[in-house]
Each structure stands twice: as C-alpha cells, then as structure tokens.
Design brief:
Shape: globular
Number of helices: 4
Strand content: under 5%
Radius of gyration: 13 Å
Largest sheet: none
Number of strands: 0
Length: 92
C-alpha cells in the first residue's frame, strides 16, 4: 500500500475533533466520567503506535497547530501529544 499523507492528516484531525468534543462538552450532553473514559481510550490506542509513528503524529500535530486560527483550539492541538502520552514533555 502506498503512503497517503492526506489520509493520516484527516484521520488525525478526526481524532483531535472528537477528543476536543469529549474535553469541552457539557455534562448535560455527556457525563464527565464517560468523556474521560473515551479520552483515555484515545490515549491508549495512540500509545500502541511505534516510537517512530508517535513522533510522526507529534510532528503532524505541530503542523496542524501552526495552521490553526482559533487560539484555544490551537493550544489544545499543541498540547495533544503530551496529554495523550505520546511525548514526555510539552514543546515550548
């Protein structure tokens, strides 16, 4: 199978968007325990990646954050790799 950078980017955008939803939704939409459970599951799945792939995700996240215009969402994307345990410390 040939590499498809656009596929990786779009899938990562989807993961970030759903994780953002779990992070920011009101408890009337989704209770906090369920939201946290799903965020932890995202982290678990991402941590199954090889170190090389984790770094690729971190690099892609940096690119996505750099192009994000909403400051709050940009910060979320910038800290996503650290929050999910893909890197040991936040950049910056």
């Amino acid at each position: 199978m040939s590499e498809s950078p656009q596929l990786v980017t779009q899938l990562l955008r989807a993961v970030i968007a759903y994780t953002w939803f779990f992070e920011t939704c009101d408890e009337t939409v989704l209770d906090d325990d369920t939201a946290l459970k799903h965020q932890e599951y995202v982290g678990y799945l991402l941590n199954q990646l090889s170190d090389v792939d984790k770094q690729r995700v971190a690099d892609e996240l940096a690119d996505l954050a750099a192009s994000e215009t909403d400051p709050t969402y940009r910060k979320f994307v910038e800290t996503f790799a650290f929050a999910m345990g893909l890197v040991e410390q936040e950049d910056g």
